[in-house]
Amino acid sequence: MSLFITFEGIEGCGKSTQIGLLKSFLKRIHKSFLVTREPGGTGVGERIRKILLSSENGGMEPMAELFLYAASRVQHLRQVIVPALREGKIVLCDRFADATIAYQGFGRGIDLAWIEQINAHTMEDIKPDLTFILDLPVEEGLKRALKRIERRTVKEDRFEKEALDFHSRVREGYLYLARKEARRIILLDGMKDKQTLHREILFHLPHGFMG
C-alpha cells in the first residue's frame, strides 16, 4: 500500500533522526519505501538546494526563494514522489509544502493565499497522507542545528543564520498548520527522547500498517 508521510519542524527539531528510525523499522518489517527530501530529491532539486541553503546567498529576495522551492518541488513530484507512490511504496519526505507555508509565508511574510495558489499548481492534487511536526522551543532547535552544522563539511546554514524572530514566526506557522489540519498533521513534542518519539510515530501510523 502506498503512503506519503512527511516530517516537518523548525531547524534542529530532530526530523532526520526520526526518519532514520522509521526507515530502519520499515526495513525490519519488509516494507517497500523511499526516503527523500526538500529541497532536493532530484539532480535539479539538489542543485537548487545548494542555492537555497548556502549562506553565501543571504541577499535572496523572498519571492525568488519561494519560486526556487516551487521549481524543486515540481521536479521532485514528477521524477520521484509520484512514481514511487504509483509503485505502491511508502514515501518518507524530509519537508514538503507545509514548510513553504511556515518559512516563506509566516517567516518571510509572503501572502498565504498566494503561496497556496502556487502550491496548488505545483502539487497537482498530491498531498501527504500523514505529516509529523516535531515542535520544540526555537532556542533549543537552533542550538541543536548549529551543533550539527559544525560537524559537517558542507555548510547548509542560510536559515540558521536568520534572526530569532524569523524562527519564532516559522514555529508559529507550523502550530497554525497543526490546528488547521488536525486530521492529517500530528504535532509531537520534540523535546522528548528519540525512542519515545519513534514509538509515538509508530502509534500514529494507519491501522493495518504492520500487516
Structure write-up:
- The chain is an alpha/beta fold and about 210 residues long.
- The chain is built from 8 helices and 5 strands, in the order βαβααβααβααβα.
- A 5-stranded parallel beta sheet has the order 2-3-1-4-5, with helices on both faces.
- Helix 1 packs across helix 8 (about 195-205), helix 2 runs antiparallel to helix 3 and helix 4 (about 95-105) runs antiparallel to helix 5 (about 110-125).
- It is globular.
- The chain starts with a strand and ends in an 8-residue tail after the last helix.
- The mean pLDDT is about 95.
Distance between the termini: 10 Å
Largest sheet: 5 strands, parallel
Q: Beta fraction of the residues? A: 5-15%
Range of helix content:
40-55%
The computed structural class is alpha/beta
The helix-strand sequence is: EHEHHEHHEHHEH
Mean pLDDT: 93
Characterize the overall form.
Answer: globular
Number-wise, the strands total 5
Biggest β-sheet: strands ordered side by side in the sheet: 2-3-1-4-5
Radius of gyration: 16 Å
Enumerate how many helices there are, as a single number.
8
Unreliable stretches (pLDDT < 50, length at least 5) are none
Summarize the structure.
The chain has helices at residues 15-28, 43-53, 62-86, 97-107, 112-123, 138-150, 164-180, 194-203, and strands at 3-8, 33-37, 90-94, 130-135, 185-189.
What key attributes describe this structure?
5-stranded parallel beta sheet; 211 residues; alpha/beta; single chain; 13% strand; 5 strands
Question: Can you lay out the helices and strands and say which pair or pack?
Answer:
Blueprint: E1 3-8, H1 15-28, E2 33-37, H2 43-53, H3 62-86, E3 90-94, H4 97-107, H5 112-123, E4 130-135, H6 138-150, H7 164-180, E5 185-189, H8 194-203
Parallel strand pairs: 1-3, 1-4, 2-3, 4-5
Helix pairs in contact: 1-8, 2-3, 3-5, 4-5, 4-7
